[in-house]
Amino acid sequence: MLTQKDLVFCSPPFGMVPLLDRLAPVAAAGFAGISLMPTDVWTLEERGMSAAEIALRIADAGLQAAEMDCTACWMPRHRTQDDQGDLSPLLRSLTADRVIATAARVGARSIVAVDLMKTPPPFEEAVEGFARLCDLAADHGLRAQIEFVCAGGIRDLVAAWAIVTAAGRDNGGLAVDSWHHFRTGGTVEQLASIPGRRIHSVQINDAPEQPQGDPWTELTTSRLLPGEGVFDLKGFIQTLDAIGSAAPIGVEVFNDRQLSEDFDKVVADTAKTGRATVESARNS
Q1: Mean pLDDT (whole number) for 120-135
Q2: The predicted structure's pLDDT at residue 100
Q3: Which residue, among 202, 195, 193, 280, has the nearest Cα to 247 in the 3D structure?
Q4: Sign (positive/negative) of CA torsion 191, 194, 196, 199?
Q5: Is residue 23 part of a domain?
Q6: Buried b vs exposed e over 147-175: b needs ≥16 C-beta within 10 Å?
Q7: Domain region containing 205
Q8: What is the mean pLDDT of residues 139-146?
Q9: Residue 145: strand pairing partners
């Protein structure tokens, strides 16, 4: 079982690298877990590999499947979302039922829910959608968490926590990404108000003081490794520890420079900076 002492490799920035090719470098770098994308599993299943075999390959590499990232179609309004251009058909395919079933097949511990539409959802629709998502996840022994996205419909910690609270499901919680938190003006004091047990996954990364273009462009192309920017990652991690969060810490960095670098080096750098950031926060 993954704990707050474990480091997780976040897969979404590296969808161009087949899942099975990710496993050895991720394990060699010292990660304990790896997040998965639904398409990782679907691609292998379409080629004839069973979910049981996929799960075995992950375990044989010495890794645990962390969260399934993500479902993007869990409210009625998501069924017709078309404001993300070429990405919209994929988002509509990431339905709650399908993603939860996929997570259960490969033994992931939880699922992440995002809202990437450009306008905030009606509150009641979001609450009802998340409650249903949690109930479906609970049927498979999974937890569900909302990841707020500064360029999406649920944009900050306050908005996401209000939905989780109103949904009232024990297995419902939050995925907290340092980039989205600090870029939306979030504070460690706000984070300190969340019960630690409701933080289901954590992602760290960094950024320069001044935003690099519009939010969507920066979050998908210009995030920095932990320690390369100005975020208060020390306070972020110390606050998570103080509220009793047991969530493992993942490192998620979308940066175009990685496209021209050797994948093994990128993974090693990600692990090194993530581990150093966490150890520095906990040893000071």
Answers
A1: 98
A2: 98
A3: 202
A4: negative
A5: yes
A6: bbbbbbbbbbbebbbebbeebebebbbbb
A7: 7-282
A8: 98
A9: 112, 173
Spatial CA neighbour of 222 closest among 187, 249, 259, 186:
259
In total, how many domains does the chain have? Answer: 1
Per-residue pLDDT of 221-245, as tens digits, reads: 999 999 999 999 999 999 999 999 9
Instruction: Note the pLDDT tens digit of each residue in 62-72.
Output: 999 999 999 99
Whether 1 is covered by a domain: the verdict is: no
pLDDT tens for 58-113 read: 999 999 999 999 999 999 999 998 888 889 999 999 999 999 999 999 999 999 99
Query: pLDDT-derived band of residue 269, with 50, 70 and 90 as boundaries?
Result: very high
In a domain, 189, yes or no: yes
Question: What pLDDT, on a 0 to 100 scale, did the predictor assign at position 82?
Answer: 87
CATH code where residue 155 lies? 3.20.20.150
Per-residue three-class SS string for the chain: CCCCCCEEECCHHHCCCCHHHHHHHHHHCCCCEEEECHHHHHHHHHCCCCHHHHHHHHHHCCCEEEEEEEECECCHHHHHCCCCHHHHHHHHHCEHHHHHHHHHHHCCCEEEECCCCCCCCCHHHHHHHHHHHHHHHHCCCCEEEEECCCCCCCCCHHHHHHHHHHHCCCCEEEEEEHHHHHHCCCCHHHHHCCCHHHEEEEEECECCCCCCCCHHHHHHHECECCCCCCCCHHHHHHHHHHCCCCCCEEECCCEHHHHHCCHHHHHHHHHHHHHHHHHHHHCC
Residue 143 in domain: yes
- Two tokens, residue 100: 């939860």
